[in-house]
Design goal:
- The chain has about 170 residues and is mainly alpha-helical.
- It has one domain: Orthogonal Bundle (yst0336 like fold), CATH 1.10.3560.10.
- It is about 55% helix and about 5% strand.
- It has seven helices and two strands.
- Strands 1-2 form a two-stranded antiparallel ribbon.
- The protein starts with 9 loop residues before the first helix and ends with a helix.
- One of its GO terms (cellular component) is cytoplasm.
- This is PBDC1-like protein.
- InterPro entries: PBDC1-like_dom_sf, PBDC1_metazoa/fungi, Polysacc_synth_dom.
Length: about 170
């Protein structure tokens, strides 16, 4: 039997939700409310990240204290992986999972919550939408987004946001 159902209202609810999300997955089975909380947490993470790359030049972003190590190991393991527009099969197929598993597992104890689920944009020039989003582990997200930042692929989002802001500022003057 899993933990009691959680009401996510107010500080007590947020505290209960945070505690629940820290428990091992085996404690839950298929709790629909927990799935909704995970989805909300993943969406909030995605929204914060997209706002960040929209506001700050992605080349200067540091996502973890291990960015250099993650990037180096990622490009050693996946030197030819196209990251501008991802092919979900290269992340999700059985063969892909076999290639990703050793890469991901080397970051256990190095990157906090390395295997938590998060949302990843397929096309880095587009926002998070249902059609442009896949579910990935946090270390896959970091590896791909650090590479996108370093290799200039996320510049498009930043530049588009900067141009839109400049246009808005000029029209309101």
């Amino acid at each position: 039997m899993g933990p009691d159902r959680i009401e996510c209202k107010g500080v007590e609810g947020a505290t209960a939700a945070a505690h629940a999300l820290s428990l091992p997955a085996e404690a839950y089975g298929n709790d629909a409310q927990l799935e909704v909380m995970w989805a909300m947490k993943a969406y909030n993470h995605a929204e914060v990240y997209f706002n960040l790359i929209s506001s700050v030049d992605p080349k200067f972003l540091k996502l973890t204290k291990s960015d250099e190590q993650i990037y180096t190991k990622f490009r050693e393991a996946f030197p030819d992986l196209s990251i501008q527009v991802l092919d979900p099969e290269l992340l999700k197929s059985a063969d892909a999972k076999e290639k990703w598993r050793p890469f991901c597992n080397q970051f256990e104890g190095v990157v906090e919550d390395f295997n938590y689920g998060t949302l990843l944009r397929i096309d880095c020039q587009k926002d998070y939408t249902e059609e442009n989003t896949i579910f990935a582990t946090r270390i896959q997200f970091y590896a791909i987004e650090i590479a996108r930042n370093k290799e200039g692929y996320n510049d498009f989002v930043h530049n588009a946001s900067s141009k839109a802001k400049l246009k808005k500022d000029k029209s309101s003057s």
